[in-house]
Amino acid sequence: MTRYLAARAAHALLLLSGISVLSFVFFQLAPGDFFSDLRLNPSISAETVAALRAQYGLDQPLHVKYFRWLTSVAQGEFGYSFSYHSPAAPLLLARAHNTLFLTIPATILAWLLAVPLGTWAAARAGEWPDRVSAAGASALLSVPDLLLALGVLALAVHTGAFPVGGMVSLGYEQLGAWEKVRDILSHAFLPVTALALTILPTLLRHVRAAMVEALAAPFVKASRAHGLPRRSVMRHALRVAANPLISLFGLTLGNLLGASLLIEVILSWPGMGPLLLEAISARDFHVVIGAVMFSAVAFIGGNFAADVLLYAADPRIRTK
Amino acid sequence: MKMASRKRLWVVLAMLAAMHAVVLLAGFFSPHHPARQNRMAPFAAPSRLRFVDEQGQFHFRPFVYARVPHPADPRARTEARARAYPVRFFVEGWEYQVAGVFRSRLHLLGADEGAPLFLLGTDEYGRDVFSRLLHGGQISLLAGVLAAGLSLALGTALGTLAGFFGRWADAGIMRLAELFLSLPWVYLLLAVRAFLPLHISPAEAFLLITVVVGMIGWARPARLVRGVVLSAKERTYVLAARGFGASNFYLLRKHILPQTHGVLLTQASLLIPQYILAEVTLSFLGLGVGEPASSWGNMLSSLQQYHVLTSYWWMFAPGGALLLFAQGFFLLASALQERASGSL
Lengths: 320, 344
What we know:
With 320 residues, chain A is mostly helical. Chain A is 77% helix and 1% strand. Chain A is built from 12 helices and 2 strands, in the order αααββααααααααα.
């Protein structure tokens, strides 16, 4: 157990450090930095700009910059944001929290919809529930995330049933505790729904495929023949089908984070996406690298969690 | 069954080819120059092509009415029924190029000067959305196709290197591929874009995006090609050819790379729409092709203003085109996959 997990964790760490090194290589290749726009200003001399760059260590070679950044990561600062004049960590943490506030409920919602629907479609393979869900899934699959988010926004603005933009209403501070929760939830409803819809079709297809395979197994026929109730047969089949689905959970996280970025920008949810875009236009590279590292940690961490779950669910991995 | 699936593949291919042809011949199909502004008619609604005039008489040649301010509400528009502007076919107009080679002045549709022939309405500067849609399609589709070609070429080269020569090349390339695959795609795209120049002309932006999107997508095709090469190089006929003294290059060209065609074809049908979307996303976020050039992404970005989003539905037109192409490539991919699984 520990050896397997330690190997997976070491692999994840290796990937993360590889990504951070790669980011810094790109950082080094980038033309211009946060202070290059200052050069256009005639009242700021070239020496001042050079002094500023030296002050923040931007004139150092690649390995020095990288090790300085690693030190600040170790100190919990994650580099320095030039446009906010503060360590990057508090900024990143607040935004990461808001992004996870969308992605985690969306994942749960999507799985809660996909498992029963997929199972139902598999149990009635070839009949109308199967066809309807397959048609719906393929229609939804070909809608780009960007358009889905725009569509949701249009719907929200048109009907006015849900608040549009932001995470809280004006005057949020004056609300009572219960109303605060309600306010945030009503703001989160649309982005979470849109996000769940972006991964639902993929999940639905895989759940159906895995269940069709599991239901074809001889033990299902045998237990049916022995007169086991349909529900308990399904429960056993689901256990068998769970294996590929656990890996799928890790794999869809990448799509989920990407879709979340777009949805956050379009529905102006104060998550990691808007921060990343802002940092890109301001050439605030430590924040860019921080946002990229966040996505890598979430993605790789999710896959690590899937590995652990797989270990718990599948005895074949344990004996290997 | 087999016939049916083959027929479907051809139908999908013909459909996609027709859609691409329309975009390629954007100049011919556009009634207006894509950058021509019409300051008197911002956000004009799509013109209605009419066949029946005020007297109830039917005309074979469609016509449009001019739009004038409403007498009661100056902000609203109403049709001036006094004068009909007939739509003319195959008219001479502004000069355009087809694929950067042929020059022509011939346009499918046209109307007299001042006639509001806006098939999909106009944008905030009074530019014809239909013409911008077709011209923007040239940028979005070309970026997708070129980037997919670049990705597949890189993926094939690196995948072959890894699969055929093995050992440290294999280990190194596959570790690198893993790095590229362990970032969410949109974050990877933005991360690479972040470190490139921001304020550039549309032509430079187009090249930049194509290269960026093409360069970061090599990992998945490389993995697949590596798998095919690995199994192909152990086939008995390859070993026999090697025994007869065939060189590595000959083996790759004659026996191994042809095996990867199926995988590459399916990958292309998956990558092209994804990369079209990548260009659209970047331009939408203001990091791609900018004004005055049109791309589906920068056309859609005006929808981020709520009044555009709610009042002018025709501004969604690039989204509709995107949906059409996404659906076309989706059908192509599933037809190709069906063919691949049927032939095995």
